[in-house]
Batch of 2 targets.
Target 1
Amino acid sequence: MKVFINKRIPEVGVEILKQAGLQIILPENENLSYEEWIKYCQNTDTILSIGGDFKYDKAFFDVCPNIKAIALYSVGFDHVDIQEANQRNIPIGNTPEVLSRATSDVAFLLMQSVARRASYNFQKVKEGNWGAFDPLHALGQELYGKTLGIFGLGRIGYQMAEKCRKAFDMEIIYHNRSHNEEAETELGAKYVSFDELIRNSDVLSIHANFTPEHKDLFNYSVFEKMNPNAIFINTARGGFQNEQDLYRALTERKIWGAGLDVTNPEPMSADSPLLELSDVCVLPHIGSATIEAREGMARLAAENIVAFSNGDKMPYCANP
Ligand code: DGY
């Protein structure tokens, strides 16, 4: 069985595939055009798929009828039409758990960076403008005892909540499709409506799977209901936020600041007005970018392919 891997991955994943006797196809150039990518996909049985640049939708499956399984190198699967894959009996593997710690670390990092105005202060140092000690300048805010609101309390949201609880004794409120009993018992997390979440959070952090209904969910009418000292954090998917509205809300001081590891589109344009704001910290989608997480992702994605090639169910599968 052939496996097309569109970018190099940590060796641990490649070893698993080799030991299973699978034929690995790697492109000569990793920055494939859509046409080049389709050609590779037409000549393989399975894909170990890195990145969300190209969609797995009806048009794709129609022109690549030989594809039997896809193992995503990500936990998110918003670039896959799962219904379409289901209709064609194509399992879609993903890589949950192994990146929860790393991604929640980035949410925690962004929260503190925005609270203590790290981007603004770093910029001043780079400009040679350190300045004299000033009791009234560049003041941040402390997070102790504040309220963390989590939108989407799954594995990553749980780890963010746990860090905030332990480090800053923060109260946890959350809005989710269903109750998270572990978070309620272990962290004292309280389930609230979406409206209560946005009104009562001092830090609002998104950790949900992105679906089309979520597009621009965080828009001006949401931001204006938030507390003027609230910090907005997104490490999930950029589509959750309307960036023009976020800019307006920040310039009108409806909220304190924003920390984004994901933007819409990605990459964010270097002339995005959000980058001019001192209380915005933007990272280039590095949530899972640790050696440990990326090796874990390589292992799970490879194990998904091997399971499929043995006629077994993928151990980590996005299809219901
Ligand atoms: C994921 O795994 O979904 C991360 O966002 C990396 O794409």
Target 2
Amino acid sequence: ALVTSKQMLEDAQKGGYAVGAFNVENMEMVKAVIAAAEEMQAPVMLQTTPSTVKYGTLETYYAIVAAEAKKASVPVCLHLDHGSSFELAAQALRAGYTSVMIDGSHEDFEGNVAVTKKVADMANAMGIPVEAELGKVGGKEDDLEAEADTNTDPQEAKEFVERTGVTSLAVAIGTAHGFYKTTPVLDKERVSEIKAVVSVPLVLHGASGLSDEDVKECVQRGMCKVNFATELRAAYTDAGKKLLEEKPETFDPKKFGVVGMEAVKELVKGRMKVLGCEGKA
Ligand code: 13P
Ligand code: ZN
Ligand code: NA
């Protein structure tokens, strides 16, 4: 069923595990992620970035996810990832998204508080959970390139959550979007420090390319939602490339879809095991 992220993130926080949030680009990726959740009996979040919704529209992703979620026995949430403005967050809510992120991390602290509070006031009034970001996750997410990586300060995080009313918080601990060119240096103790003073579930961005051990430790220390994007795109496309190498005569999009879905499903199942959300639906 299509549900908000409220219950699943609260349960994850209480249970000491994390819900996987997987970025999807098309119908095949939606089906693959939900099939993985079904096989693992795990709650799941599917999310789309601003560039993805520009490509396919909020309404179309909503229609695909809603149709697939309806058939699923597990809780499925549709989330706006890295919402870039109040207007886009409002449009996502109107389209039926059941969770939104407003990313004001490129603003200064007061600017971030202001835009985040505006979105939180609107979404909370509609019963929809809101994720925000404090500190800077490295790398390129969509068209937004973060400059110098700045990890989240625990006391600032506490003040930020209290002043904005957000229901979950993405924090920076040294991860970056995309694959890593060099091994990332993660400040994992910071997760525990933030968790000690912040009441809402914490979110880890940039998980593609992290080792299972790193992901596991971040979850044990308090991350309740973990985002995977690049890995899924790569798995989907690599499967299609392999098919084309083996059978260059392939022209039916369904053939690419089948191998792409299988690759994404297996990847997602593996990451879900690491997050500990298996059997938590
Ligand atoms: P990766 O592309 O590194 O998995 O990051 C995903 C993410 O944080 C989406 O918001
Ligand atoms: Zn992200
Ligand atoms: Na990454």
